């Protein structure tokens, strides 16, 4: 029971555990450490058959932008150990779901990270990408839920609880048409608000391994979901889907539903088109696991090395990012290596400092493949001579 509930709380631990928030201020780390202690104690008391008292859970989660933290408050309801096992399990699942719902709707911004005095365009870390896309898929799939199926689940769960409380329950006597108790049904509804991924259980896919490109249309997302669920597919296609999901569990590289195949675009993710064919998906995943792992490792090293460079250039000259993160689905930027980008940024910082360059345009800089002016964006080649960069910025002023 305890492992199941902690599995449901995986998004909470990934976002709020103090070991994850390495760059957060100490007061936020301290608050989240206390929250983890309170929550673990609360869960342990219930799973061990003890009473649990009313508690307040307060913690912080990072914003998508990465420079702010949202405060989340959740009330942990009291629990009496005399209640049955089924009620205990339902209470724990309800608690987990209430925490996840609160994370999706944080009330207010309590702290702004002062490390970034200006708006800093930078490569998005893997956990930021995952959080952003996970929120997108939750929103989309809620729109696709079938009301009849949800109603049936609520009724069956409500009747189950009522029968535990009353051994002469009407449904046990054959009165199947009776509606369930409305108060119990409302409690069950809160506890089952995160069960929408069960449609994927028969092919072994968890929503933790599935993300959606925010640029896709609703129709494109529907098409991808239809294929992923194995609807109207032959036996071979269904088996291809299952084999792919087995590979995903083994290698832990999630799927990103987008418009093309790529193992390089988003580090650690397998990007596939929304109109994929199951056999092609299986072959692509099989052949590119090594590339995805290498890309993720390179990005991790790159992010550590480049953080100070991006901050210094953004503070002293102009906000700057890397090409593939400005136009994340453009194939031309995938061939620029992280080493090229790092060396280009290092040289740019040196030239700005030595030549005391001034930059007055209200535009962001992008370390890319060429010298170009775009709308509100200036692209700089990562491979340049000192004279070229000075002349280029002189021509812009």
UniProtKB/TrEMBL annotation:
Pfam (any one): DUF4460
Superkingdom, taxonomy of origin: Eukaryota
Residues annotated as domain DUF4460: 3-100
One GO CC annotation: mitochondrion
InterPro entries the UniProt entry points to: DUF4460, TCAIM
PANTHER family: T-CELL ACTIVATION INHIBITOR, MITOCHONDRIAL
Name of the featured protein: DUF4460 domain-containing protein
Organism: Blepharisma stoltei
Source taxonomy: Eukaryota, Sar, Alveolata, Ciliophora, Postciliodesmatophora
